[in-house]
Write a structure and sequence with these properties.
This is GPI transamidase subunit PIG-U. It is found in: Endoplasmic reticulum membrane. With 510 residues, the chain is mainly alpha-helical. Helix 6 runs antiparallel to helix 18, helix 9 crosses helix 12 and helix 17 packs antiparallel against helix 20. Strand 3 and strand 4 form a beta hairpin. The radius of gyration is 25 Å and the shape is globular. It has a domain of 65 residues. Helix content is 58%, strand content 4%.
C-alpha cells in the first residue's frame, strides 16, 4: 500500500502542474485576455504591459524610454521583453509570446519553491537525527511540503490573474524565489543574482538581505543550540557532532562579493542600454525615485494613492518619510525574534512590503501566499473572496458609471490591507520559538500530524520520564497551532504518521 502511494504521488503532482499550465493557456486565448491587463489590481505603473510596450516604442523611436513619465521599469526588461510586445503570430492572440514567458516564469517559480521545500525538509531531518529521533521517523510516510507549496503557488487565483493579465509580477516573483532558493541550497552566486535582480526590478526586496544572511550563516531554519544542549543534558556527555553548526561569516563574505559583482554587471548593462538617453542617473530618477516619491496617484489596490491625493503638499515630504521608514522600523524587531527561522522571516518581510509598497498588485500577494500554507480562517477566506469580487465592482461604479466616488474603491483597498495584516498576525505563532507555558505533554499512542509547508521547521526538546520511561517534550518548544491553548493541536515539522498521541498534562492555563 505504501509503495502504491509513493508511485502515484509524482504522477499526481505533475498532473496538477500540467493542469495549471493548460488553465493559463485557455485563459490567454480568451478575447483580450479578459481585459485583465487594464485592471488596476493587476497592472501598476511599474508592472503594466502597456507601459512596457510604450517604453519600447519610445526607445525604438530614438527617444528616452522614460520620456513622458509613461515607463518606469528596468531598461533590461525593455531589451528582453520589449521585442515580445510587437511580435505577432498570425492567427494567434496578440502578445501570445509575452504571455508564454509569464507562464514559464510561474512554472519555474513553482519548481524553485518545490526544491526549497525539499531542502528545508532535509535540514529538519538532520536536526531530528541530532536529537536521536531518527528511529521514530525512519518508517514514516513523508509528504514533501515543497510539492504542496508549489501547487499552492500555481493554483493561487492571484498568481493566475497576474500571469494572464500581462503583468511583469511573475518575473519579479521568480527573482525573489530564486534568491531564497539559492540561499537555502547554499548556492551563493545564485542567491546573490536573485537578490540583485529582485532589488533592481522593484527596490523593496532589498530588505530580504537579512533573512538571506541568516540562511547562509546558520542554515535553513536552524534551531537554537540550547535546545540540543537541553536534549543532551540527561546524558551528561555532550557530543559536539550533534550540535547545529555555529554562525559562519564565510558564505556571507562570498554573498557580498557576488552581490557587488552582479550589481556592477547589471549597472553596466543598464548604462550601455541608456547611454544615449541620460545614462544611469535618468534610470535612478525614473525608477527608484518614482517609487519613493509616489508620483503616480492612479488608483490601485494599495492605500498610498488615496492618502497622497488628499494630503496637503506642505506635508507630503513628511508623510513620504513616515510611510517608507515604517517598513524599516519593522526589520530589526522581526529579525531579532525570528532569526532562527529565516524562511519564515522572509515570508513576513515580503508580506509587509507587499502591503506598504507604493504600487502594490495582486501579484505581490501571490508571492507571499506561496510561501505560507493557505490554512486560512474562515473569516480570512471570505475576506479575500469578498475583496476580489467587490474591488472590480467598486471601480466600475466610480470610474465608468459615475454612481460612486473614490471612497467606494478605497474602502476595498483598506479591507484588503487589513486582511493582509490579520494574515501576518495569525501566522506569527507559527514562527515563534518558545511559548510561556512549560507544561509537559506525554507521548503514548497514534496520531497524524503535519506542518505548514515552507513555513517553520522546529525540533522538539525531548526528555525521558524517569518513572515509566515514556518520552516527553516541552510544550513551549513545540508548535502551538494558531495559538490555541485548550485542546491544543501540536504540529510537528514533518507530515507523517507517528505512532503517538498527545496527552495534555495540566490543561488549566495561566
Amino acid at each position: 500500500m505504501g509503495k502504491k502511494k509513493t508511485e502515484t504521488a509524482p504522477f499526481s503532482f505533475w498532473s496538477w502542474v500540467i493542469a495549471s499550465i493548460v488553465l493559463r493557456l485557455i485563459l490567454i486565448y480568451f478575447p483580450k485576455n479578459l481585459n485583465l491587463a487594464s485592471r488596476p489590481e493587476v497592472s501598476t505603473p511599474l508592472t503594466s504591459f502597456r507601459r512596457l510596450a510604450e517604453g519600447y516604442w519610445l526607445k525604438q523611436s530614438s527617444m528616452s524610454p522614460y520620456a513622458g513619465s509613461m515607463y518606469h521599469g528596468s531598461p533590461l526588461l525593455l531589451s528582453l521583453l520589449g521585442p515580445l510586445t510587437v511580435k505577432r503570430i498570425e492567427g494567434q492572440p496578440n502578445h501570445l509570446l509575452y504571455s508564454l514567458v509569464s507562464v514559464i516564469a510561474d512554472v519555474v517559480s513553482a519548481m524553485l519553491l518545490r526544491a526549497t521545500g525539499k531542502s528545508l525538509q532535509l535540514t529538519y531531518l538532520r536536526s531530528l537525527e541530532s536529537l536521536d529521533l531518527v528511529k521514530q521517523i525512519r518508517f514514516s510516510e513523508i509528504l514533501s511540503s515543497g510539492d504542496v507549496a508549489a501547487l499552492i503557488y500555481l493554483w493561487n487565483p492571484f498568481t493566475i490573474v497576474a500571469c494572464v493579465g500581462l503583468s511583469t509580477s511573475p518575473i519579479e516573483n521568480m527573482a525573489v524565489i530564486l534568491c531564497l532558493y539559492g540561499a537555502c541550497s547554499r548556492r551563493v552566486p545564485l542567491a546573490a543574482f536573485g537578490w540583485v535582480i529582485a532589488t533592481h526590478l522593484s527596490l523593496y526586496p532589498a530588505i530580504l538581505i537579512i533573512p538571506v544572511i541568516f540562511l547562509l550563516g546558520c542554515g535553513p531554519d536552524a534551531p537554537p543550540r540550547k535546545l540540543f544542549l537541553q536534549t543532551n543534558q540527561q546524558e551528561k556527555v555532550l557530543n559536539p557532532s550533534k550540535l547545529p553548526p555555529a554562525f559562519s561569516w564565510r558564505p556571507i563574505v562570498h554573498f557580498v562579493f557576488w552581490a557587488l559583482l552582479w550589481s556592477v554587471y547589471v549597472l553596466v548593462l543598464c548604462g550601455v542600454s541608456l547611454r544615449q538617453f541620460g545614462g544611469l542617473l535618468e534610470m535612478f530618477k525614473s525608477t527608484y525615485g518614482f517609487i519613493l516619491t509616489v508620483e503616480d496617484l492612479s488608483p490601485n489596490i494599495g492605500v498610498l494613492w488615496y492618502f497622497f491625493a488628499e494630503v496637503f503638499d506642505f506635508f507630503r515630504d513628511f508623510f513620504l518619510i513616515v510611510f517608507h521608514v515604517n517598513i524599516l522600523f519593522m526589520i530589526l524587531p522581526l529579525a531579532i525574534r525570528l532569526h532562527h527561522h529565516p524562511c519564515f522571516l522572509a515570508f513576513v518581510y515580503v508580506a509587509i512590503f507587499s502591503m506598504l509598497k507604493s504600487y502594490p498588485s495582486v501579484g505581490d500577494s501571490a508571492l507571499y501566499l506561496g510561501l505560507l500554507e493557505m490554512q486560512f480562517s474562515f473569516f480570512l477566506f471570505c475576506g479575500y473572496v469578498g475583496v476580489s469580487l467587490l474591488s472590480p465592482v467598486m471601480h466600475n461604479l466610480w470610474i465608468w458609471r459615475g454612481t460612486g466616488n473614490a471612497n467606494f474603491y478605497f474602502a476595498t483597498a483598506m479591507v484588503y490591507a487589513c486582511l493582509q495584516i490579520i494574515l501576518v498576525v495569525e501566522s506569527l505563532p507559527l514562527g515563534t520559538m518558545e511559548f510561556p507555558s512549560n507544561r509537559l505533554m506525554a507521548v503514548s499512542s497514534a496520531s497524524e500530524l503535519c506542518l505548514p509547508p515552507f513555513a517553520v521547521f522546529l525540533p522538539l526538546t525531548i526528555e525521558r520520564d524517569p518513572v515509566d520511561g515514556r518520552q516527553t517534550f516541552l510544550e513551549r518548544d513545540a508548535f502551538q497551532y494558531r495559538g490555541r491553548a485548550r485542546g491544543m493541536h501540536v504540529i510537528l515539522p514533518v507530515k507523517c504518521k507517528w505512532e503517538v498521541v498527545m496527552e495534555m498534562i495540566g490543561m488549566g492555563m495561566d
